[in-house]
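#struct-help
A.M.: can someone run this one for me? Single chain, 448 residues.
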Amino acid sequence: MIRVPFLDGQAVAVMGLGKSGAATVRALAASGARVLAWDDNAAARSAAGVDAVDLRGVDFSAVALLVWSPGIPHTHPQPHPVAEAARAAGVPLVCDVDLLAQAKAASRFLAVTGTNGKSTTTTLLAHVLAAAGRETAAGGNLGTAALAMPDLGADGRYVVELSSYQLELVPHLAVDAAVLLNIAPDHLGRHGGLDGYVAAKRTLFARLKPGAVAVVGVDDPASAAIAESLAGEGRTVVRISAERRLAAGVSAPDGVLLDDGTPVCDLKAIARLPGRHNWQNACAAYAMARADGIEPQRIAAALAGYPGLAHRQELVAKIDGVAWINDSKATNADAVEKALVCYDRIYWILGGQAKEGGIAALAPHFPRIVHAYLIGEAEDAFAETLDGKVPYTRCVTLEAAVAAAGAQSEGDGGAVVVLSPACASWDQFDSFEHRGDVFRALVQARRP
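D.P.: on it. Structure tokens below:
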């Protein structure tokens, strides 16, 4: 746990009591702060096990700080009344990562953002740093809440995954290296459109310490434009690409990682990093590790030993020649595409709470789909998109989809059953992790 002693004796409000909010309450209480905690969801308040105070009735003139859960809208599409009340009283809104940054200002921070690939890159980078002997912790938007991470020494490295939501709430964050992997349309309602989303991602580079390195993917137009803009400002920019060879930068267009054009290692030989999207993730982790002073061959050896990331193309089981893949973290079409291109015969489980754009953009990959199994709120919309192009079954629940996919794929050696939902999970599950855990348990129960 990270303590925040600079808030000792002060009244601090916490809005949102999910994983990060609950960890924040514990850290604040342990630091001597007077905590006013609230969640609009009664079940969340109960699960957090705290004495809740309805922030809609609080006098914010006596509150020093409001720690905001990034998952709750505070501007678009409509500001939350608690956020409005705090701002009217001049109370700053921050997220838990900002408290971490203030508490551990002497430590090194390496930050990861992007629409897709953040979690793999974060865990991969942390794995490389640890293998090189660095004292390292990883968290933020991924897995471990910021204030639940271990209290590292002054030479420790915090690898923080940052969503666009969190980037709006970290005024004190100062990073030693930062990577923007890519930008694709996502969370547009929360940022007032694509321009707002791109602007939120770009703010990461306003957090660079003097002389810090900006690593930027250049395989999409928005990110490439940001790289050019940063270079024009005199920033140190390392470009990365999985699509083309870069004479200057880190690239892997054919699966061989190149540093300024010089081969470093063959990514195709690393089973836990399948597909071009993972080549980009590896390029990013390599560039960030080089920015931290680690030698190329030491990084290459660590990449080869990466154990993989749960819920992202996670091989759950192989039953009678059919691989079962948990890709629950693929919550939008762009992320799903990264999985579909890796396999030739796919029994696809998808659905949930739909994101902007649906799955129409995945049509070029429909010939790979043997059958689709639809679940959740998106059933009707996805059925309309697939109709006449891909055979599908309306399953409603994940349990029914796993049963149907198991029956139809039986004996189809070399095929895969992939849970890659292209949707948020909140219509039927607590989180994408919960959805993936349920899928894993259902698959394991099918083992002979």
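A.M.: thanks! The radius of gyration is 22 Å.
D.P.: also worth noting: The chain has three domains: 5-94, 97-304, 314-444.
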